[in-house]
Amino acid sequence: MDLKAIDPAGLPENVELHEADLCELDLASLGGEPFDVMLSDMAPDTTGDPFGDHHRSIRLCNVLLDRVPEWLRPGGNLVMKVFEGEAYRDLLVRANGLFQKVKGFKPFTAEEVKKLRAKKLTPQQVLAERKKLGLK
Fold this sequence. Notes:
The protein is built from 3 helices and 2 strands, in the order βαβαα. By secondary structure, the chain is α+β, with helices and mostly antiparallel strands.
């Protein structure tokens, strides 16, 4: 889902795209069944103010975490993008309260991608963490 239209080119048939505001949706509007995976590439419109952009990014991640107990099935996984800064650690602490394992990671840099491609390797980032059981 995104506030702006998403180009479906190259996506598998089982991927659903929604042009909408996350804050205005509930699980029923997304089919009513919890997801196996939630993958978030959400980011605020950047302003050039790293402090403000970071905190807006953290706010979006917290909105997503608010929905995890209802939207993500037990055993499901979440990957989300966040701009690192002073509130990053608090976000990880909050996520640790919802998941069995939480790990922050940085994606490959453009230079690392070039080196991997030169070796005929395809760069990928994968993070799969099991959700704690017993949550509503």
